[in-house]
Amino acid sequence: MPIMEKETSRGHDSQVLPKVPVPPLKQTMDTYLKCVQHLVKDEQFKKTKAVAEKFGAPGGVGEVLQKKLLERRDKTTNWVCDYWLEDMYLNNRLALPVNSSPVMVFPKQTFRDHKDAIRFAARLIRGVLDYKALIDARALPVDFARGQLAGTPLCMEQYYRMFTSYRYPGLKTDALKVQMKATSSAPEHILVACKNQFFVLDVVANSKQLNETEIFSQLEKIMKMAENPKERDPPFGILTSDGRTEWAQARDALTKDQTNRDSLALIESCVCVVCLDEHSGLEPRDTTRAVLMLHGGGREKNGANRWYDKSMQFVVGMDGICGVVCEHSAFEGIVLVQCSEYVMKYVTGSPSKMARASSVRELPPPRRLLWKCNPNIQGLIAASGDRLQRLVDNLDMDVFKFKDYGKEFIKKQKMSPDAFIQVALQLAFYKCNRRLVSTYESASIRRFQEGRVDNIRSATPEALAFVTAMTDERATFADSEKIKRLRNAINAQTDYTIAAITGMAIDNHLLGLLKIAKELNMEKPEIFSDETYLASNQFILSTSQVPTTVEMFCCYGPVVPNGYGACYNPQSDHILFCVSSFWENTETSSAVFVKVLNEGLLEIRDLCNRSGAAATKPADSSQGAGQPRKSGK
Ligand code: COA
Fold first, then answer.
1. 98 — alpha (psi -120 to 50), left (phi > 0) or beta?
2. Which atom in ligand 1 lies closest to the alpha carbon of residue 556?
3. Cα separation, 272 vs 181, whole angstroms
4. Structure confidence at residue 129 as a pLDDT band (50, 70, 90)
5. Does residue 544 register a pLDDT over 90?
6. Which of 11, 70, 86, 92 has the smallest number of CB atoms closer than 10 Å to its CB?
7. pLDDT tens for residues 25-84?
8. Is residue 621 pLDDT above 50, yes or no?
9. In whole angstroms, how far apart are CA 413 and each of 486, 612, 617?
10. Residues with CB under 6 A from ligand 1
11. Catalytic positions
12. What residue's CA is closest to ligand 1, atom 35?
């Protein structure tokens, strides 16, 4: 079983938030059928409908499970979070880089030499420690929802796991462990990776945290120590880039030796990892920087200069390619953004805090982590390196800045920017494939205690009606019809968003019903082995809005072999899209997707302009697309 140890003291804010609701069974069944009907063949839908109706019928299995789920809701702080964590992350056997860990990509930095780079790293570490101090003191201001249903306070629990979590690989399932609140006097250390070697950088000496100059001088020592080829160990970090079962097996082999156990214990208890990367030798374009953050460039570059189990890895490349890699199971991208922005503002926004020589202490050098290797472990490292290389070669990434308009233009149309972008993504997919597919958009449920996310199923029937009108070659649709369909699609998307952020979406609920059936040792209800259900959980389009207020962007890989990852960052006058797919799949191409996305966004703009959409009243919508909904309504 996955372990999730929780801190004893919860954020004060969590106490006052409501619990995630359990939606009514009938509502979920109706929504489920509506979500899938237009995505599957008629025959298959008929079967699915019959199965779902049987499941949801009065006195049916669904009612039994629903009752148990409601009991679980009463007994727990959050009925879905453990189920969701296992299903979304811990049971997933795929390698963390590309498949699971999102990254933040910082603007390219200009470093004249390695000293500049470690000066940057030293400031970054100070920024991280300052941010961590705010978290430890529970002094971060409580976040409030923006956009739809703005104004509600949000759960802060995810922040408290940023520097205290570690994801242990398991043979069948991983375990996310969150350290119990450490005493303030406990020594803290950061793991520094340099030339694939690992070093323990103690950040407290004589009960006092190191200042920026002291950190700088310790990093210089690390760089020197890493130079010595005689002391160099094999690249153990690459094992963490492997499939979770493979890494668990390798970890078992490592832990047979006490030296390795000691090194692992130091890694697992660090605050975060700082990776001092070698020059990549690549042109630092957005796309290149994104892929280098996602996988380090394989073993020939910085792919082994990582430890993927740790929640936060800050990367500082000697060539100025910098960012953050995040193990996703402990928190969401939005929390990652907050920390990344704080740290970048700290690094760039304030004058250097290099201390006077007199206040710099002479510190013992950081410790190099020692390992015991044998031919078996050597073989495992080589095999992990091969598999990482395959992932590196397979990733087809395209970072695309759409410059023709941004959120402001969309708001002027009295449309939700997020819903608009989602509909544009549907149009792009349809242009490529002449069909829509099961789509995932993450919706935050931090309005609730310990809330993580649920799914907005963006491939709505209304979106299908719109994209078919937009791509119809016989010109049967007048602009008035197209704009009507656009508004309908945006209304439907906005309605789903509001349902999701208020805990009324279907994915978490269906998962809860399935898990309860398992817990009761019941035979798996037919609805969950139905072809439609299985297909509806293959998210060929996996999307997420991750907005930033400082120049940087988030990206991630696809979640299925034949899919796209599409992360977007809407700004007032432009939208940044990070589209990923796999080269091995012949049906996908990030460059083609980006090309048609661009085309579609321009076509929608022209349609709005022609229709004078800004001037006309919004379509009759009782549910939100006309204006963003305020909280409490
Ligand atoms: N007319 C004019 N303006 C509108 C509008 C309309 N009809 N509808 C919305 N707007 C405005 C909003 O007021 C808001 O204004 P602001 O920029 O001043 O805050 C802005 O447009 C954005 O709103 P919208 O585009 O509707 O989206 P949102 O901000 O509510 O975001 C989600 C929707 C689903 C992305 C958001 O609720 C969410 O869950 N975010 C978290 C996603 C996540 O977890 N990502 C990380 C995963 S790892």
1. left
2. 48
3. 16
4. very high
5. yes
6. 70
7. 999 999 999 999 999 999 999 999 999 999 999 999 999 999 999 999 999 999 999 999
8. no
9. 11, 9, 9
10. 102, 146-148, 332-334, 411, 414-418, 442-444, 453, 497, 501, 544-546, 625-628
11. 328
12. 545
Q: Could you give the CA distance from residue 96 to residue 514 in angstroms, rounded to a whole number?
A: 26
Local structure of 68: helix, strand or coil: helix
Q: How far are the Cα atoms of 157, 300, 358, 405, 594 from residue 571, in angstroms, in the given order? A: 27, 36, 46, 9, 18
Q: Of all protein residues, whose CA lies closest to atom 8 belonging to ligand 1?
A: 416
The residue whose CB lies within 8 Å of the most ligand 1 atoms, and thus the one to mutate among 410, 545, 623, is: 545
Q: Does 8 have pLDDT greater than 60? A: no
Specify which residues 441 forms β-bridges with. 456, 543
Residues 591-607 have a mean pLDDT of: 98
Q: What is the pTM of this model?
A: 0.94
Protein residue closest via CA to atom 15 of ligand 1: 147
> Where does the pLDDT of residue 619 fall: very low under 50, low under 70, confident under 90, or very high at 90 and above?
very low
**The ligand 1 atom nearest the CA atom of 420:** 25
Query: What are the residue ranges of helices labelled H in 229-328?
Result: 244-254, 258-268, 286-295
The three-state secondary structure class of 213 is helix
Say how many Å lie between the CA of residue 233 and the centre of ligand 1.
Answer: 48
Q: In this structure, which residue's CA is closest to atom 4 in ligand 1? A: 416
Distance from Cα 418 to the centre of ligand 1, integer Å: 6
pLDDT given at position 2: 42
Q: What is the DSSP string of 216-239?
A: HHHHHHHHHHHH-GGGPPP-GGGG
Going by alpha carbons, the residue nearest to atom 10 of ligand 1 is: 416
Report the atom number in ligand 1 closest to the C-alpha of 456: 34
- Residue among 339, 418, 458, 572 to mutate when testing ligand 1 (max atoms within 8 A of CB): 418
- Residue 629: the pLDDT is 61
Element (H, E) at 569: strand 564-570
Sign of the dihedral defined by the CA atoms of residues 100, 105, 110, 111, in that order: negative
Q: What is the pLDDT of residue 29?
A: 98
The structure tokens listed for 242 are: 């492997």
CA angle 467, 472, 478 (to 5 degrees): 90
What strand order describes the sheet that includes 103-105? 367-368, 197-202, 189-194, 273-277, 312-317, 322-326, 103-105, 553-555
CB 346 within 8 A of CB 127: yes
CA of 88 to the centre of ligand 1 (A): 24
Q: Ligand 1, from 84, 146, 148, 410: best to mutate by most atoms within 8 Å of Cβ?
A: 148
pLDDT per position as a tens digit, 384-402:
999 999 999 999 999 999 9
- β-strand pairing of 453-456 with 553-555: unpaired
Q: Ligand 1: which of 411, 491, 630 to mutate, judged by most atoms within 8 Å of the beta carbon? A: 411
Instruction: Specify the residue with its C-alpha closest to ligand 1, atom 26.
Output: 416
Indicate whether 353 pLDDT > 90: no
In this structure, the residue with its CA closest to atom 19 of ligand 1 is: 147
- What token pair was written down for 273? 């990892």
d(C-alpha 417, C-alpha 432), whole Å: 23
Atom index in ligand 1 nearest the CA of residue 332 equals 48
Q: How confident is the model at residue 10 (pLDDT cuts 50, 70, 90)?
A: very low
Structure confidence at residue 187 (pLDDT): 73
